[in-house]
Amino acid sequence: MSRVNWENEVEKRKTELISETRKFLQIASVLDESSAKPGQPFGTGINDALNLLLKIGEECNFHVKNLDGYAGYIEFGKGEESVGILCHVDVVPEGEGWTRPPYAADIVDGKIIARGAIDDKGPTMAAFYAMKIVKELGLPLSKRVRMIIGTDEESTWQCVDHYFKHEEMPTVGFAPDADFPIIYAEKGICDIKLKQEMKTEHKKEQSYPRLISLQAGRRMNMVPDDARATVQIKEEDFLSITNQFDEFLKANQINGDTSGEKNELTFVVKGKSAHGMEPKLGVNAGLFLCDFLNRLLIASQGKQFVQFITDFLHQDFRGKQLGIPYSDEITGDLTVNCGLVSYEDSNGGSIGLNIRYPVTNDGKEMIKRLESVAEKSGFSLAVLDHSPPHHVDKDHSLIQTLSKVYEEQTGQKAELLSIGGGTYARSLESGVAFGPLFPGREDVAHQKDEYIMIDDLLKATAIYAHAIYELAKE
Q: What is the set of active-site residues?
C-alpha cells in the first residue's frame, strides 16, 4: 500500500475533531460523591463524559462496552493480541482565578481553554480520532486496538482495578497523558504514615513552652505551603518568644506571623507549594515551623515529635537522614516529601510521607529500613498506598516502534524520559506514557486556564494514528 500522509488525514477531520473535543470538554467531569449511585460510582459529570465517549464510538461503528460506570472501552480490529490506549475522562476541580469559564472550551489565540484540555480529555479525543482514521482507511491489522477509558485517575484508580478484574491485559500500550517523546520509566510511589506512640507520663507534663497543636499540608503528594501551631507559654515570655520567631523568619527568608496573648501563641509559616515528586522545588512550611518549635520546646512529647521531623526530614529531600537514599541512572534519586504533619496534645502526632523511589530500588527493603528508624524514635509505621515502579526496557519493540513514529512525524530525536509521577501506563505490563505535551510547551495541567494548542492537538492525533497502525499492523 502507498505511504499514508497522517497529517493530511487529520486535516480532513479537523473541524469535526475540534467540535467533538469542545463538546467533550464542556462536561464538568469532576468526582462528585453526592451524585454517585450504582452504575455511576463517581457521580453524574464523570458518567456523562464516559457515556458521551462511548456513544461517539458506537456511532462510528466501534465495539464499545461500559463496565458498571467504573471504566469502558472502545475497540476495533481482530486478533489474539491487542494494543491498549489508556485514557481517562475525569478531571481535577477547576479551582479559582480563571479568565474564561473553565467548561466553556473557548478558543482563544489558537488554544482550547478548559479544565481537562491537556489532562486528559483533549488527548483522549486525539487518540479516539487516531483510531477512527486507522479504521476508516481500512488498513490491514493483525491486532485489536482498544481504548481503555478510566474514570477516577485523578483520585484512587478504582477504575483500573475494576477494569482488570473483568478484562484482559493488552499486549502493549500507551497512555496519552504525559509528555512527548516517550516516558519509559516511572518511580515507585509509596504513601507512609508515621504515628507517634503516646507515653502515659505525657499527661502529667506541665513544662512550658508546651505544644498544643500543629497542622501542615493537605495532601501527601504536595509540599505544604501553610503551617500553624499553637503553643502554651509563660506569660512573661510572650515578647521574647515572638521576637525569637521574627528572627527565625528573617534568618530563613520565609514569611509568617504570630497571634495570641498572655500564655498562648499561634505561629503561622507560609511556604511554597510544589508537586511531591520533587519537593526541593517548594518551601515546606511544616518543616520550617517544626525547626523553629524544636528550638523553642524543652523535653516533652511535643518536643520529641518536632525533633524527629527536624532531625530526619528538614532540608533533606533524598532520605539521607532516614537512611534510605538511593539513585540509579534510569530514574535518578529517591525523593521524600513530608506532605502532612499533625499534632494534638491529647493524641500525639502523625506524619504523612510521599516517597518516590527509583526503578532498581527494592521498595520493601526501603520500607523495612524506614520502619527501623521510626521505631527507634518512638513512631509506628503504616503503608497507606504503594505503587511499585514501572519500567520498559529501552530495547523493547514498543519503545523502538514509538521512537520511529515520533521521529518520522516530528523530525526530532525521540529521547527517553523518566518521571517521579505516575501515569496509567504503569497499570500495563508493557506500557509507556506517550504525549501529548510537546518539548518546550508550558505544562498547565491542574492549573487555572488549562489549555491545549489546537496545532498540538492535530499533531498529536497524527502521531497517535501512525503509532496505532505501526503497533497493530500485519
A: 90, 153
Under 8 Å between Cβ of 35 and 20: no
pLDDT digits (tens, 9 = 90+) for 410-427: 999 999 999 887 888 988
376 CB neighbour count, 10 Å cutoff: 8
Backbone angles phi, psi at 226, to 5 degrees: -150, 135
CA geometry: angle 196, 199, 205, nearest 5 deg: 115
Contact 227, 288 (CB under 8 A): yes
Beta bridge partners of 307: none
Backbone φ/ψ region at 357: left (φ over 0), alpha (ψ -120 to 50), beta: beta
pLDDT at 463: 98
| Cell numbers placing 326 | 538511593
Q: Specify the pLDDT at position 201.
A: 56
Please give the C-alpha separations between residue 263 and each of 204, 238, 280, in angstroms, as whole numbers. Answer: 19, 7, 36
pLDDT confidence of residue 219? 79
pLDDT at 95: 78
Q: What is the pLDDT of residue 423?
A: 85
pTM above 0.70, yes or no: yes
pLDDT at position 277: 86
Q: What is the C-alpha separation between 380 and 87, in angstroms, rounded? A: 38
Provide the CATH topology of domain 6-186+390-472.
Aminopeptidase (3.40.630)
The domain ranges of the chain are: 6-186+390-472, 189-387
Predicted local confidence at residue 42, as pLDDT? 96
- Burial 150-181, CB ≥16 within 10 A → b, else e: bbbbbeebbbbebbeeebeebbbbbbbbbbbb
The ranges of the chain with pLDDT < 70 are 1-2, 200-206
Buried b (16+ CB within 10 A) or exposed e, 22-43: bebbbbbbbbbeeebeeebbbb
Does the domain at residues 189-387 carry the CATH identifier 3.30.70.360?
A: yes
